[in-house]
Every structure is written in C-alpha cells, then in structure tokens.
Amino acid sequence: MQERQINRRTSRRKTHHFEGIQVLIYLWVSVIIFELFLRTQTESGFFNEGIFYSLLLSSALVFLFYLLSTFLPKKAKKVFLGFFLGFMTLLFASQLIYYKIFKTFYTVFSAKNGGQVLEFINDILFAMGKNALGLLLLFIPLLGYILLCLKGRNLKTRYQHTWFERGFIGVLMILFFGSALLGINLGNQDVNSAYDLYYRNNYPVASVNKLGLLTSMRLDLQRTIFGFEQVLAPPPPKVEIPDVAEEPESPFQEGTEEEPAPVYEEQVADIDFEKLIAEETNENLRNMHVYFSERTPTKENEYTGMFEGYNLILITAEAYSHYAIDKELTPTLYKLANEGFRFTNFYNPIWGVSTSDGEYVATTGLIPKSGVWSMFKSGSISMPYAMGNQLNPLGYKTMAYHNHTFDYYERDVSHPNLGYEYKGLGNGLNVRKTWPESDLEMMELTTDEYMKDEPFHAYYMTVSGHMRYDFNGNYIAFKNRDLVSQLPYGVGGKAYMATQIELDKALEHLLAKLEEYGVADKTLIAMSADHYPYGLEKADIDELAGHTVEENFELYKSSFILYAKGMEPVTIDRPVSSLDIIPTISNLMNTDFDSRLLMGVDMLSDAPSKVIFNDRSFITDVGRYNATKGVFTVNPGVTMTEDEKETYRKAVSSEIERQFYYSAMILDTDYYGKVLGK
Q1: 574 CB neighbour count, 10 Å cutoff
Q2: Confidence check: pLDDT of 240 > 80
Q3: 536, 469 contact by CB (below 8 A)
Q4: pLDDT digits (tens, 9 = 90+) for 50-90
Q5: What 8-state DSSP symbol labels residue 114?
Q6: For residue 560, what is the DSSP state?
Q7: E strand or H helix at 563, and its extent?
C-alpha cells in the first residue's frame, strides 16, 4: 500500500503543466497545413495579407474546439477531437474537389442541397483521381491521429487540464482572433479586401483567399442561419466619363437638308416612385425606391421594335464558347454567329453556382445573390421581365426545355414561374438517358410542340456541351469522335469540339423545322453560354484559342448569337455581357419593360456599357479593373490623371456594389411584385 502511494506521488511529480497540449499542437499544425495547401491549389494570389488572417482565424477556431474538449471525460475528449479533425479533413478535401471541378467553393446552402451532385459521381471520382496526392496529404493528419489513438500512450488525450491551462488556451484564442480582427478593421476596406469580405460581401473564392476556408464557411453558416444584412457603400460621386470616341462623319452631304433626329422615349414603366417613397415605412424598401428612381433609364433607339411580333427562341448552351465556331466543323454556329448581330466584345462571367447562376443572369437580367440558388429562390417571387412572362400575356405559346433531369437545381420550381410550360428528362421530355444527353434529340422531340402555334417563344437549357471532355466518360464526345479525329488538338480540345458538334446539329435541325413551318423569316434566335468551358484544362483552352489566354478577362470572353433570317449583319464592338441579354431582346421586340429595374442594359443603346464580374472586376468603355490585384488600366486613347483614374474607378466600383446589393434585395423582398403588381 505504501509503495503504491509513493508511485502515485512520483507519477504526479513527473506530470508537468501543458503535457497534454501536444494534441492541441498536432491539431493546430494540421489545420494550418490544410489552409496553406488549399491556397496553393487556387488561381488566387498566395502571398498577400490573407495568409496571416486565415492562419490567425483558423488557429482561434482550433483553440476554441480544443478548449471545449478539456471539459469532456477522457474517452469523450478523444472521440470529440477525432470528429473535429475528421470534419476538417472532409471539409477541405470536398472543397478542393469542388473547386477543381467548378472553379469556386460550395456554400452552406449548396451543401444542404448537395444530393443532386451525386448525379455527377463519375466526374467527382475522376477529379478525385487526378488530385489523389492532394487528397492523401489532407488525410495524413487524420490517419496519424487514429494510429496514435490506437496506441493510446502516445497521445495525451487522457491528460486532465488545470484551470490555469484552460485560461492560457483561452487567452491565446482571444489573442489570435483579436489580432486578426484588429488587422482587418485597420487595413484596406476596398472591394475584395479582408474587411469587405468579412463584413459586407459574400464572394467565396476571394473570401477563402483573404480569410481562409474555415472563416469563410463560418461566416456563410452564420449568414445562412441568421440572415445577412449587407453594408451598402455610399452613393458613387458624379464623375464625367471622358469622351474618347471620334466624331462620326455626317451621312449627309454638304448642301443637303438634314432630317430631324428622331425623338426616343425613355424605357420606363408607369411607377410613381415619389408616392412610393413618401408612403413606404420599411427603410429597406424605401431605399430601393430611391435607388431605382435615380437610375438613368435607357432610351428607345433605331433597333427598338426591329423584331416586334417575332417568335423567339432563347437558348442557354452548356459551356458554349466562340472556340466552338468553325466554318467547316460547326457550320450552323458559324452561320448564326456571322449573319446576325456580331458582338466582338461579349463576356460570360462565371458566378457562384456556375450553370444555375449563369442561366439566371441570361434569363432575368439580374445579378445572382451569393450563398443561395438565385434561380430556385426566384420561383417564389414575381419575375415579370423573364421573357416567358413578358410574352405569355401577349398571346405567345411559351415553352421551356432541359434535356437533363427536370428538377436539377429545382428548375421545376423556377421555370414555370418564369412564364413557361416546362419539360425536362423525367417530366415529359423523353430523351434517352445518356451522360450527357443529346441536344439534337431534345430539338427533334420538341419543335413540333410549339411551331404550329404562332406566336411562340421556346427556351432551351442544353447539356450536350457538359464536361468531362474525353471520349470515355462522355457519351456525346464519343458519339462525334470520328468528326474531330483530324483536329490539331489534344484529347480535351477534340472532345470539347465533339460536344459542340451536337449543339450545332441541334441548331441545324431547329433551322430546318423553322423553314418547314414557314416561320424562319419571323423568328429571332438568341443564344449564350452559362459559363466558359471550365471543364477544360487551361492548356486545352490555350490550344483552342491559338495563343495563351489571359486569365482575368479574356478567359470569360465568349459568343452571343442574336440572329434572324434575312437581317443585315450588324457589328457591335463595345463590351457587353450576358447580363445585358434580357434588356436587349426586350428592346428589339418592343415589349413593355422598365430599364431601371434591370441590372444589364440594352447592348444596342447609347447607355454606358459595363461588364461586371463576380469578384467585382469590371470592363467599361474607359478601361478595365482587376479587383483581385487592385489594378485599373485605361483603354488605349483614354487620357486620365492618376487622381481621375482612381475617382472614376471608385465610382464604378461603388455602383457595382449597389447593383449586387439591390439585385439580392429584389430576390429577398419580392420587389417586382410590390412595385409592378403580381
């Protein structure tokens, strides 16, 4: 008995303060490795202030969870910390694979609706195989923890902490967190700064770069549960944009009498904003009334009503790009792109929910709200400016089709609300269930449904152009493999072109049916992509382009087809984007719309053009701003002092912030329903 008491006293004497904290250090180092490794796998800059903020904030989170574990019984503590490390491992691994596929990070909203992603399990497994070494690196700490737990004595989870030690851990946690917040609040507060992303905006790629994945996910979870009241920047200052255009030559010869210039009316609805502002008791809605009432509307122009009364076929084509246009290989695409409006400076920015957000922008003229599925969310509010809802009251038969699973991204909720009778695979559109499905089959099965009922409007969301771009896991690429065998590209480029041949065949069939029904000369066709073909490796894109593609802007350059048989081709050189599609078509068809309530502008108007990117970069007639690098470059021929450049850049950036904010508010408040009626 006496000997056992001596041994216990000796054991206590050998136990020093902080002996059990070695497991804390193990977890801490593991999470730091996770954050640093993920930074190396993205296209964002590695060396910036985000390294310090991400490490400080993630360290504070690790210290918090370890501190909580010190109050648990010995075995429960071991399990708790194991689950914590396991969750961290799975979070970073899943985000790595998601980024490799979609070039962005998933949000909490997407995660809770993530069951549908299993339809792409083959693509996921392929991406996991390509990134096997990275995944192994992420799983090593968890495997090490499990092995140490099995040995027992090598992991001090059985150690009982004193209150002094708990206090010390708590102080370190507060020190890490407080230091990060202090730096964030004292540092730069511009667009995409750590401050901007912590308090004002929710752009996942920039947020992970400036705050780290754990903090980005924590903020996203917090905003998903409790809501997110964005802080709106002050109104932009009035800035005179320099007029750099050359004076156009007069079409009238000397001695002739000039015809009076036509008087064009503003494209606005009958909305009494003054009354709405005076009577509104909700501050958010009153601010919206003020904002929209002060926006400058576009005016009618020489193209207004050019296609009034025409049928309309609107297409969002999966991963379509100007790279797909080839006179010999895709002759229908070539015809449509060159015999209608030719947009030489058209961009297709990528948004947070890739395909769904790209489709939302092209069909609504609004900017998607980050953190949610904007298209799905729009299914519960008034969306009067979607073309289905604009044309259906005018007597148009309005149909929408998608040749993949009908309820993917909850399109069965959103598309009927956009004014369409909607059919997809499993909901009335009986295309063969391949991967991906055929655009040609979709056209063959649908054109007879509506072409006999003029006027008509059909909307298509295609899928044949979907990645993966090889000849093993892609049915469409395999189907058209022989047609691309002689192309001077690698497997990726050839497979991509093979998928676009299917789109070309679908359009060929569409034109043939329009001729058959005798309506080709009174049907307007509009087509854009949902996003650039990000399923291709950058080397494949460079190969298709024939040069090294610049990644900040040129990567998102694309093709917008706007064509009607018999029209005189028109070239538009100014920078425009998919956000501008709805106001442009609305003007051409002379429908009643309020240009102030859309975030895009009519591409054919004289309104200042602006291409907006998800990271708040922009292109205008004056120059382009890379928000990630904080660099504004004026266009050739534009002369501005440094002060003028910065004033102009801040003005445009501030207005873009307001456009993001009020687009989200339209979704959140059902604003259209309130000012235009249901």
Answers
A1: 17
A2: no
A3: yes
A4: 999 999 999 999 999 999 999 998 889 889 999 999 999 99
A5: G
A6: -
A7: strand 561-564
CA–CA dist 416, 399 (Å, integer): 9
pLDDT digits (tens, 9 = 90+) for 90-120: 999 999 999 998 888 999 988 877 667 777 7
Question: Which two structure tokens, joined as six digits, stand for 425?
Answer: 């695979």
d(CA 356, CA 370): 12
H or E stretch at 573: none
Residues 6 or more apart whose Cβ sits within 8 Å of residue 417: 378, 379, 380, 381, 383
pLDDT for the residue numbered 18 = 46
DSSP state of 490: -
Q: How many Cβ atoms from other residues are within 10 Å of residue 82's Cβ?
A: 15
Alpha carbon separation from 472 to 435, 478, 483, 667 (Å, rounded): 11, 7, 16, 41
* Helix, coil or strand: residue 304: coil
Could you tell me the CA-to-CA distances from 427 to 316, 379, 401, 431 in Å, in that order?
Answer: 19, 18, 10, 11
The phi, psi pair for 205, rounded to 5°, reads: -65, -50
* Residue written as token pair 């687009």: 663
Looking only at the bridges linking them, the beta strands covering 561-564 and 456-461 are unpaired
Q: Which of 10, 158, 102, 534 is nearest to 321 (CA)?
A: 534
Query: Please, what is the average pLDDT of the chain?
Result: 90
- Token pair 């050019």 is found at 306
DSSP-assigned states of every residue in 42-79: SSS-SSSTHHHHHHHHHHHHHHHHHHHHTTS-HHHHHH
| Number of neighbouring beta carbons within 10 Å of residue 102 | 21
DSSP secondary structure letters along 376-415? HHGGGS--TTSHHHHHGGGT-EEEEEEEEETTGGGHHHHH
Structure token digits, residue 627: 């928000």
Residue 47: both structure tokens together: 């060396």
What the block records as the tokens of 201 is 């905006």
Which residues on neighbouring strands pair with residue 576, listed in sequence order? Answer: 346
Contacts of 668 (CB under 8 A, 6+ apart): 369
Distances (CA, A) of 454 to 76, 413, 460: 70, 26, 18
> Are residues 525 and 463 in contact, defined by beta-carbon separation less than 8 angstroms?
no
Neighbours of 657 (CB within 10 A): 21
Confidence of residue 229 (pLDDT cuts 50, 70, 90): low
Contacting residues for 159 by C-beta, under 8 A, at least 6 apart? 15, 19, 20
Is the pLDDT at 9 greater than 70? The verdict is no
d(CA 668, CA 646): 33
298 contacts: CB under 8 Å, gap ≥ 6? 266, 267, 583, 587, 595, 601, 602, 605, 607
Cross-strand bridge partners of residue 315: 460, 527
Does a cis peptide bond (omega within 30 degrees of 0) precede residue 436?
Answer: yes
Provide the whole-model pTM. Answer: 0.90
In terms of C-beta density within 10 A (0-12 exposed, 13-18 middle, 19 or more buried), how is residue 181 classed? Answer: middle
User: Taking CA 453 as the corner, what is the angle to CA 452 and CA 456, rounded to the nearest 5 degrees?
Assistant: 115
Band of residue 678 on the pLDDT scale cut at 50, 70, 90: low
Contact indicator for 410, 379 with CB cutoff of 8 Å: yes
Rounded CA-CA distance 96/103 in Å is 10
Which pLDDT value is given to residue 246?
Answer: 43
Partnered with residue 524 across adjacent β-strands are 312, 564
Q: Quickly state the pLDDT bin for 618 (edges 50, 70, 90).
A: very high
What is the identity of the amino acid at 619? I
Residues 6+ apart with CB under 8 A from 82: 145, 146, 149
Closest C-alpha among 73, 31, 70 to residue 54: 31
Say if residues 207 and 216 touch (Cβ distance below 8 Å).
yes
